[in-house]
Write a structure and sequence with these properties.
This protein has helices spanning 17-28, 34-47, 88-95, 105-111, 115-120, 152-180; strands at 52-59, 64-70, 81-83, 100-102, 125-133, 136-145. By secondary structure, it is an alpha+beta fold. The protein has one domain: Beta-Lactamase (2-Layer Sandwich).
Length: 183
């Protein structure tokens, strides 16, 4: 199912108590992590905007990310993995816990192997928010939109929203480590 979001920037709003309430209620639901991932996606669409939205879990041992949520399953399916060892993006986002923002197709090209897929869909800016728990990266929340879309203010909103998915990603990360036999 392809759910590319068309969104007019004039419709964005600042985060509200209603947004935080939606997230707080979503994280209490039993259908996790799907419920909180979908709620964060909804609030991110309204407050930041995107066409492509994904949530990735970080595997520190392999230094790669695994897709756990996507609004475009036909192009970016669940369980897709990307190796990030040795990449400038990986060091910046996964190791240093700094948001990554590129506002041009060239900025996407420099950082991502799948840049042709993104730019081929008309996407020209990207915002990657590292999700941290207990001082370490547990994943990323990723939004891609038309060129020139993302700003510093979007990074701040993204960091707030990412806090709601930190625990589910940490739990997934811990479960993955325990089932792989790594201690």
């Amino acid at each position: 199912m392809n759910r590319i979001m068309q969104h007019d920037s004039t419709q964005h709003h600042a985060l509200s108590i209603a947004d935080v309430s939606l997230l707080a209620h979503a994280i209490r639901q039993t259908d996790q992590p799907k419920a909180i991932f979908e709620a964060v996606e909804q609030v991110a669409q309204n407050a930041i905007g995107f066409r492509l939205f994904t949530i990735m879990c970080f595997d520190a041992e392999r230094f790669e990310v695994e897709r756990l949520h996507s609004n475009m399953l036909d192009v970016y399916p669940l369980s897709g993995r990307k190796k990030k060892h040795g990449s400038v993006w990986g060091e910046h986002t996964l190791r240093d816990l700094k948001p990554f923002r590129a506002t041009t197709p060239d900025g996407i090209r420099v950082a991502f192997d799948d840049h042709m897929v993104m730019t081929g869909m008309g996407l020209g800016s990207i915002l990657n928010i590292p999700v941290a728990y207990n001082g370490r990266c547990v994943g990323t929340m990723n939004m891609t939109h038309v060129a020139g879309w993302y700003t510093q203010a979007h990074e701040e909103i993204g960091l707030l929203l990412a806090a709601f998915i930190a625990a589910p990603l940490a739990l997934h990360q811990a479960a993955s480590v325990s089932t792989s036999g790594v201690s």
